[in-house]
Design goal:
The protein is α/β, with parallel strands linked by helices and 312 residues long. The protein contains twelve helices and eight strands. The longest helix has 14 residues. Keywords: Hydrolase.
């Protein structure tokens, strides 16, 4: 498999050893990939190989508390600023003055915060599944029906008890199945989120048992403690910036069947172009058959869009 050529390092970053996957020429323009949940660096395997083949340096860290990176001593005190400061420190450690940032799911939040706070370090931003959302609109993530998974997982102890009934591999499998659908995961009062998946439901056809094994082995190491704090219990403050405007070039790739579009007002915010009030240099591309994991589901289409953005 092409991604077996990807190399791995641990970097001493702000008191923790953070895992970084990397491939491509060390002196080339850097493209930093930021994962979401329930993902780790491996979610970018197709994109890393593609951008490296096109002459770029691909770098995919595991955020602190995820995958092969160290856990911080007090995960419940973690903030978005920790992730942003880690990213700056990674760029500094690798002597990268400026990079493109490609981010999926909640990784879009530190990606855009980096562009807002350190515009001189960011050549451009590509996000998948999540557009830029200013703090004043953060209620789209937090003021939701009680049964929505975002609401449930924000409650300390709720997800821990739900996940704790199952082994790690089954939890990751269930989340991949749920998040691959076109409907927002929403449990009834007498249900938990894990109850929404029938145990006989197969994996999506583009996600193999071997892929699941990779994710499961890494979450068996890290657990879900940090992942529940960042992002789910820290969504009220996304950027910490009043009247933000992202000036760097940006690309948003959305799957037309991504369940995230069912968030109240979300699809209109994107399709109407309101999001461009905050990101004026934004290009929006829909892959109509794509789901929330469009970069793994349809990697060739996503790679083409990313490379076109990187090499206009």
């Amino acid at each position: 498999m092409a991604w077996e050529t990807i190399e791995h390092s641990h970097l001493p970053i702000r008191g923790l050893n953070l895992h970084v996957a990397h491939t491509g020429p060390a002196t080339a323009t850097a493209v930093v990939f930021l994962h979401g949940f329930p993902e780790i660096w491996y979610t970018w395997r197709y994109q890393m190989v593609a951008v490296a083949a096109a002459g770029f340096r691909a770098i995919a860290p595991d955020f602190r508390g995820y995958g092969l990176s160290d856990q911080p001593p007090e995960p419940e005190k973690a903030t978005w600023k920790d992730l942003i400061d880690d990213l700056v420190a990674i760029l500094d450690y690798l002597s990268i003055p400026k990079a493109f940032i490609v981010a999926k799911d909640f990784g879009a939040l530190p990606a855009y915060s980096l562009a807002l706070n350190y515009p001189d370090r960011v050549s451009g931003v590509v996000t998948l599944g999540i557009p830029f959302v200013p703090d004043e609109n953060s209620a789209v993530f937090t003021e939701l029906p009680e049964g929505y998974y975002l609401s449930r997982w924000r409650v300390p102890g709720r997800a821990e008890a739900d996940f704790g009934r199952l082994d790690v591999k089954t939890v990751v499998k269930n989340i991949y199945i749920l998040f691959s659908g076109s409907e927002f995961p929403n449990a009834k009062e007498d249900e938990e989120i894990m109850d929404l998946v029938d145990p006989s439901t197969p994996l999506p056809p583009w996600f193999s048992e071997e892929d699941l094994d990779v994710y499961a082995s890494l979450y068996e190491k890290s657990g879900f403690r940090f992942a529940l704090q960042i992002p789910y219990r820290s969504l009220k403050e996304l950027t910490g910036i009043t009247n933000p405007k992202v000036e760097v070039p940006a690309l948003l790739i959305m799957g037309g069947k991504d369940y995230v579009l069912k968030l109240p007002g979300f699809e209109d915010y994107i399709r109407s172009g309101i999001v461009k009030n905050f990101v004026p240099n934004l290009e929006i591309k829909f892959i109509e058959e794509g789901n929330h994991f469009v970069h793994e589901q349809l990697p060739d289409e996503v790679n083409e869009l990313i490379l076109k953005f990187l090499k206009p």
